[in-house]
Amino acid sequence: MTIKYELLYFKFHGLARLPRLLLDMTGESWQDRYPQDWDKEKQDQPFLHIPVLTDFQEDGSKFILAESSAINRYLAEKAGLMGSNARETALISQFYESWGEIHQKYWPLTYQFNDMLSAEQIDKQMSDLREKIIVPILTKHDQALAKNPSGFYVGDKVSTSSDWMSLADVAAAASLPLFDYKNQVTKETHPHLFALHEKLSNHKAFKAQEARFPGKC
């Protein structure tokens, strides 16, 4: 089988969680590639970091794309997950970017600042982040989903399957279980977000992703 895509990243989910989901959703053949000598290999990457996507073209050339957000949008477009018109695309991007903001604020407190801040400082900042940003933003997300009979962020086709999902829906379903909400975001408080996650988690791409690196972030 001819490989259509190759994704360069490490042997854990990280920033490749969403690209790998989207690659499965394109229906094309693809493969992971893991760095063997990253200090040396990073010099060959567009911006010295990963993930990096290679799209092998029919004429033998390669389209190489860096930056996880750009990769996600490119693959979502290929998979038909960016809406049917400019307005839908803009709305999908809006909700997708909102999830990205939460990731950008949450993970540095979880990993990067451990050597810079005390445990008490991290707990305080994490508590503020939950109460002032994460919970209010996800409440807005839940309200947006509640207004749409489809159960998705964008589009009005009612479905009990994942047929009408978008990049925003995939990002939400993939992201929702990753954060520690301290019981401030639950099925009771945010039912539509959890319903979306439950619907999409049955998709074969989600099942394949979770089986890829069990127990790893």
From TrEMBL:
<dbReference type="InterPro" id="IPR010987">
    <property type="entry name" value="Glutathione-S-Trfase_C-like"/>
</dbReference>
<dbReference type="GO" id="GO:0004364">
    <property type="term" value="F:glutathione transferase activity"/>
</dbReference>
<feature type="domain" description="GST N-terminal">
    <location>
        <begin position="3"/>
        <end position="83"/>
    </location>
</feature>
<dbReference type="GO" id="GO:0006749">
    <property type="term" value="P:glutathione metabolic process"/>
</dbReference>
<dbReference type="InterPro" id="IPR036249">
    <property type="entry name" value="Thioredoxin-like_sf"/>
</dbReference>
<feature type="domain" description="GST C-terminal">
    <location>
        <begin position="85"/>
        <end position="217"/>
    </location>
</feature>
<dbReference type="InterPro" id="IPR036282">
    <property type="entry name" value="Glutathione-S-Trfase_C_sf"/>
</dbReference>
<dbReference type="Pfam" id="PF14497">
    <property type="entry name" value="GST_C_3"/>
</dbReference>
<dbReference type="InterPro" id="IPR040079">
    <property type="entry name" value="Glutathione_S-Trfase"/>
</dbReference>
<dbReference type="InterPro" id="IPR050213">
    <property type="entry name" value="GST_superfamily"/>
</dbReference>
<protein>
    <recommendedName>
        <fullName>Glutathione S-transferase</fullName>
    </recommendedName>
</protein>
<dbReference type="InterPro" id="IPR004046">
    <property type="entry name" value="GST_C"/>
</dbReference>
<dbReference type="InterPro" id="IPR004045">
    <property type="entry name" value="Glutathione_S-Trfase_N"/>
</dbReference>
